[in-house]
Amino acid sequence: MSERRRFQRIPFVTEAELQQGQQQWLVELHDLSLRGVLVSRPADWSAQPEARCRVRIPLGVDAEVVMTVSLAHQEADWLGFHCDEIDLDSITHLRRLLELNIGSSSLLERDLAALLYG
Questions:
Q1: Which domains, and CATH codes, for the chain?
Q2: Tens digit of pLDDT for each residue in 3-35?
Q3: Most CB atoms within 10 A, among 18, 19, 90, 102?
Q4: What local confidence, expressed as pLDDT, does residue 118 receive?
Q5: What confidence tens digit (pLDDT) does each residue in 76-85 have?
Q6: Quick check: 74 and 80 in contact, CB under 8 A?
Q7: Under the phi-then-psi rule, with left for phi > 0, alpha for psi from -120 to 50, and beta for the rest, what region is 99?
Q8: Secondary structure (3-state) at 102
Q9: Which segments of the chain are extended strands (E)?
């Protein structure tokens, strides 16, 4: 059995914006990692499952995390998205957020190495 690498997820409950084309939903972010996010499923969810979405997570007045994501799994109440693309400013904010919440820089460095190399 092959071992599946697990990235450190942190609970982070806040409002986020999910967008696909002209459609837009306000969702509740449940948790996040370097590899993706878990959000509440909107009642009017009608996105194309194979098409990418953009998720925007506001962190404060001048900071946000923006990712291009693809749907990894969906349940009755939750949507799990895999991060396909993230810009440098967003990864910097996300890294700092994870660092503060994980409490272990070595775990975060392991996740970053896995993200970059494999």
A1: 10-117 (2.40.10.220)
A2: 344 667 788 899 999 999 999 999 999 999 888
A3: 18
A4: 56
A5: 999 999 999 9
A6: yes
A7: alpha
A8: helix
A9: 10-20, 23-33, 36-40, 53-58, 64-74, 78-86
User: Other C-beta atoms within 10 Å of 45: how many?
Assistant: 14
pLDDT for position 8: 72
The residue written with tokens 């396909």 in the block is: 84
Nearest partner of 40 among 17, 65, 22, judged by Cα = 17
Question: DSSP class of residue 60?
Answer: S
Tell me the torsion sign for CA atoms 39, 101, 111, 89: positive
Q: Residue type at 1?
A: M
| CA–centroid distance for 35 within its chain | 6
What does pLDDT average to over the chain?
84
d(CA 47, CA 102): 32
Best CA proximity match to 28, nearest among 72, 58, 69, 63:
58
Considering the entire predicted model, what is its pTM? 0.82
